């Protein structure tokens, strides 16, 4: 979906300090930089950062890229106006570590924005991520926190909405929006775990927006 329809990025970006938590190839930071923000990307993979650096050269952008853990960012308190994560810290870090860390890094009034798989996609998804989600709930919602995907030996973190709201509130945020992403009828995908038919009926991804009080 085009950003003009999703509305993931904060509206005011010009001159704002931003940190991308788990920046990977850094394309979200690149979007921010092109809109006038001053992004910093942090990622714990040197290989991903090497790709990000190559893209910086290719597209003529230059912003700091740090090698480190998004749960413990080496910046002082209240250094940023925006903290953002697109499938970075938002699914790979423990929310009970990275969300309080984002709160520490943000100035009062600062915005936290993150994109993740929807809870329904996690509930209906099979352990084999190559098989599409169906209409049956395959995992319990209560107690959801660490989610294992044995087929590729990885684990992610996902919280039920009630727990996520509690955590954001306890970390000093006010929740402003939960965008349930619905692709257009003619959308295409290269992913196997969600079909277009499923994603037209249920949200497959969600964007959280919260503001530090
Ligand atoms: C699926 S990528 C998404 C990042 C970016 N949006 C992209 O598409 O390149 C997830 C990134 O999170 C990073 N990551 C995972 N755990 C992390 C941690 N604890 N601290 C920082 N980065 C982390 C991974 O190295 C990877 O680059």
Give keywords.
single chain; 213 residues; alpha/beta; seven-stranded mixed beta sheet; two-stranded antiparallel ribbon; binds S-adenosylmethionine
Brief summary:
The protein is an alpha/beta fold.
**Structural class by secondary-structure content:** alpha/beta
The N- and C-terminal alpha carbons lie at a distance of: 30 Å
Radius of gyration based on Cα positions: 17 Å
Report the mean per-residue pLDDT as an integer. Answer: 95
Q: What are the bound molecules?
A: S-adenosylmethionine
The fraction of residues assigned to DSSP E strands is 25-35%
> Approximately how much helix is present in the residues?
25-40%
**Count of DSSP H/I helices:** 8
Report the principal-axis shape. Answer: globular
Order of helices and strands: HEHEHEEHHEHEEHEHE
Strand line-up of the largest beta sheet:
3-2-1-4-5-9-8
Q: What is the strand tally?
A: 9
Major β-sheet annotation: 7 strands, mixed
Give unreliable regions as ranges. Answer: none
Topology at a glance:
Layout: H1 3-6, E1 17-21, H2 27-34, E2 38-43, H3 46-59, E3 65-67, E4 80-86, H4 89-92, H5 95-105, E5 106-117, H6 119-124, E6 146-149, E7 154-157, H7 161-170, E8 173-181, H8 196-201, E9 205-212
Parallel strand pairs: 1-2, 1-4, 2-3, 4-5
Antiparallel strand pairs: 5-9, 6-7, 8-9
The structure holds S-adenosylmethionine.
S-adenosylmethionine (SAM) binds next to strand 2 and helix 4.
